Amino acid sequence: MVMKTILIYCLVLASTGVFGQVENWPPDSLRDVEAEVVTVYTKEYLNKYNRMKRIIVKVYPYALHAADVIDEIDENAESIKRRGKKNRYFKHAYKDLKQDFKYFILDLYTSEGVMLMKLIHRETGMTVYDISSRYRGKSKAEMFNLMAKIWDQDLHVQFQPNDGDDKIAEQVISDIQSGLVPFNNEIVKVDKLTFRDKKKKEKEWKKKNKKNKKEYDKRRKKRNKDKIKLARKKKRGE
Fold first, then answer.
1. Could you tell me if 56 and 172 are in contact, meaning their C-beta atoms sit under 8 angstroms apart?
2. Please, are residues 114 and 166 in contact by the beta-carbon 8 Å criterion?
3. Which of 22, 123, 128, 134 is most deeply packed, by most CB within 10 A?
């Protein structure tokens, strides 16, 4: 009986406390509750993010390499006083830089090539056109840009971290820097022989795959014909 009385008393106190608080709230307002912000991503955003992540993990090491090389070129050029000698140094340095990228770039899809140029702009503050113009002269840069447009590329392209897909790319880079996305910043230099060998193997694979597909289609057509013949026989009651 005593226990029952104590329980009833506690319930009355609790009820009084709750209703007392409700009565003290302003009738037309809500209580402020502090909580951590939870980011909600749509399926479309995640698909773009994952696609962007695959591209950036592949090409970002080369953008970082370009930035390091350009810093080194500029640092070394400061000690060269004669303009002619400096231009020759720039010519050889640019040739070496281009050699590091040449066969890697030839093996990229268009979207990967565009992202590489954007990331070079992000890391160096210069477009690929600016780099070409600075180290090889404006006329050479114009020629390179004209050649690039044949493959629907633009050497003037810039990285815009607050707009469109570049905003997602910036998030990927932020996640790389924070360690959320696994990343290896080592570049793989591809020489001419390695590139040719890879292309040869790809060609052989495509040829073999085409042959297998042709044989598969042939067998599938035969199965379909056999099914049709069997259905006709059943229909005739044979």
1. yes
2. no
3. 128
Q: Minimal CA–CA distance to 157: which of 184, 122, 183?
A: 122
Cα distance between the two ends of the chain: 91
Residue 57 half-sphere exposure, CB side, CA atoms within 13 Å?
Answer: 14
As a whole number of angstroms, the distance between CA 165 and CA 230 comes to 55
Sequence length of the chain is 238
Burial of 173 (0-12, 13-18, 19+ CB in 10 A): buried
Q: Is 79 helix (H, G, I), strand (E, B) or coil?
A: coil
State the pLDDT at residue 40: 67
Give pTM, 2 decimals: 0.66
**Series of mean pLDDT values for 10-residue runs along the chain (238 residues):** 46 42 51 61 90 95 90 88 87 80 81 91 92 81 66 83 94 95 84 72 77 82 82 72
pLDDT confidence of residue 32: 61
Residues 6+ apart with CB under 8 A from 59: 108, 112, 115, 116, 119
Contact yes or no for 141/133 (Cβ under 8 A): yes
- Distance, CA of 58 to CA of 62 (rounded, Å): 8
Retrieve residue 186's tokens. 């080592």
- C-alpha gyration radius of the chain: 33
In the chain, where the domains are located: 43-186
pLDDT at 175: 95
Provide CB contacts within 8 A for 203, sequence distance 6+. Answer: none
